[in-house]
Amino acid sequence: MRGTRLALFVAILLAAIMTLVGQGRLAPASSAILSEHELEEINAMSAQDQVMRLLERTINHYSGASEQFGKRANGWLGKIRTTPELTNLSNVAYFSDDLRVRSAALEVWRIEAGFRTSPEVVDQIIGAAEASPERKYFFLSQLGILGNRGMQPQKVFDTLMLHVHDPDRNIRSGAINGLAMLGTENTIAPLLEIFHSDTSSDLRERAACDLADSGMLSRELRKKAVPELIRFSQEPDLDQTTKKWVYQALREITQQQIGDDPSAWLAWYGRHGPAAR
Length: 277
Prior knowledge:
Number of strands: 0
Oligomer: single chain
Order of helices and strands: HHHHHHHHHHHHHHHH
Structural class: mainly alpha
Low-confidence stretches: 1-7
């Protein structure tokens, strides 16, 4: 838990710095481009140090860093060890406001797990998940990562959907995590259904966060959840905690500072939704 809090603090600090730069309150110290000289330096590093340097540069939006990260990732397989420093840095990347930076975090977790990006690996993980129920959370999460990397995304989605109603809460949690990391448009409907109806309040909250801010959905895709979230806000029997998360998700996605008022949200959507265009 302390490591996660530290990662969140660093992520907030980095976001604040980028905001200050955007407002002209900080003067950039360099061109933020991965230079030829630095690439030569990186090439001479160990795989572990390459990951750390390129992940840090990707988080700081250095031009060329995310591309270098993607090119080198499979070459790092079997050469990377999990350390507190790498864990903190990958957590910071996963909470970035830039999907390219979040993608680098997924690559770190895939490399640490030892999985190559190939369609065959998807089939192997599906088999491993069935053979090892006690590790299903891990395998379902890795399926989401590989699907996000373009490896059989529809098969990954179909497999995750087999587990979203599993009686075992931990397996459902793995399926939700996999859907969040997959980040395709067809994940929105099941995340909404989980948010609305799962028996675990923790999993409902997790699905809400995955729709509003966490995971790999783009900002444009998140907006597709708005009509159903507004419908949730109109339900008189929805429990108050879940309804609070509905309003929080709506504000996060739309960036509209509207209160916990279903009529106000319905009126706003009437003015700004697709039918109003």
